[in-house]
Amino acid sequence: MTQSPLLHITPDTHHVQIDLVYATDRNLTGKPIYKAAHCLLLAPAEAALRRAVGIAQSFGMSIKIFDAYRPPQAQQKLWDFLPDPTFVAPLDRGSNHSRGTALDLTLVDADGHELDMGTGFDAMVPESEHFHAGLPEHVQRNRTLLLGVMHGAGFTHIKSEWWHYELPGSRELALIDNDESGPLRLM
């Protein structure tokens, strides 16, 4: 069996909170997609996450991760539920989550509360765009703070989702398949 190129991210090893919503029914499909909640990233993304954690800690914040590596099979389930390329990458293009180089996350204050980002994670609405006009000033400030942390760590963003960050150049990498012996099982 081949060794997985993916690295495990845990609260103890990476000083993050983890709430992998696709292992629960608290996601846009309303049902679990993963049977097990494993937070995984490719080594370059894991290194950039460590930089992001350090930047957030420098001003008293921490990071909460909602999703990281996503098997192509899970991506297909999301596409089947919401075939909208604004929010869900079709399998022929592939998601950078399925390359192990993307994260869905937010910032958390010293009391453990998520910063108000104006919409929830997985809200597939125009208001989820990073710079959507008309959002309250504090929401724009929080989104810009998250953007600064993640860009400072080497990630880039996509326009439509304030929570999604990925390594530049990820599209050049192959999708990482998740067969039966893989780290995540699908429901």
From TrEMBL:
GO molecular function list:
D-Ala-D-Ala dipeptidase activity; metallopeptidase activity; zinc ion binding
* Taxonomic superkingdom: Bacteria
Q: What does this protein do?
A: Catalyzes hydrolysis of the D-alanyl-D-alanine dipeptide.
* Stored SUPFAM superfamilies: Hedgehog/DD-peptidase (SSF55166)
The cofactor required is:
Zn(2+)
Membrane-spanning residues where? none
* Similarity field: Belongs to the peptidase M15D family.
Q: Which residues are annotated as active site?
A: E161
| Catalyzed reaction equations | D-alanyl-D-alanine + H2O = 2 D-alanine
Supply the alphabetized keyword list. Cell wall biogenesis/degradation, Dipeptidase, Hydrolase, Metal-binding, Metalloprotease, Protease, Zinc
Q: How is the cofactor bound?
A: Binds 1 zinc ion per subunit.
What NCBIfam families does this protein map onto? Answer: PRK10178.1
User: Which residues bind Zn(2+) per the record?
Assistant: H97, D104, H164
By what name is this protein known? Answer: D-alanyl-D-alanine dipeptidase
Any one biological process term the GO annotation gives: cell wall organization
Write down the EC number. Answer: 3.4.13.22
Entry's InterPro entries?
A_A_dipeptidase (IPR000755), Zn_M74/Hedgehog-like (IPR009045)
Positions bearing the site annotation: Transition state stabilizer: R70
UniProt organism field: Candidatus Burkholderia verschuerenii
User: What sort of enzyme, by top EC class, is this?
Assistant: hydrolase
